[in-house]
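Q: I'm writing a short explainer about HTH gntR-type domain-containing protein for a general audience and would like to include a description of its predicted shape. Could you first generate the structure from this sequence?
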Amino acid sequence: MFADMRRAASGQVPPFRPEQSPGYLYEQLAAYLEGLITAGTLRPHTLLPAERRMTEEYGVSLGTARHATELLRRRGLVVTIRSKGTYVASLPSTGAAPVDAAMGSTDDAATAVEGSESGLARFQEG
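A: Of course. Here's the predicted structure. Afterward I'll give you a sentence or two in plain language.
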């Protein structure tokens, strides 16, 4: 089990409890993981459990785990590298997700993409 996930399981972080939240299960799982990311429990560059492992750890289906991961990816909170895994993304110092920065001008979008490519290079090197 991953160190950050062990902290969650040990009671330092509330465990994932889908019955306590309204909405689709994948949204609940994504919100739970987003909470761990924004609280700093899951730090930038931390490898998330594989989607199949999430099914075991959180008691959800593979489709639910995939939807939750995709939702986090669209929000700019995680980066998936084929054959390497899904990692917590580095967030800008403003606290806004990288996707939010790309919503501005074309120049802002180009800068965000350039920044994410250098981040990907760091992941691929490590």
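A: For your explainer, you could say: The CA atoms of residues 24 and 64 lie 9 Å apart.
Q: Perfect, that's easy to follow.
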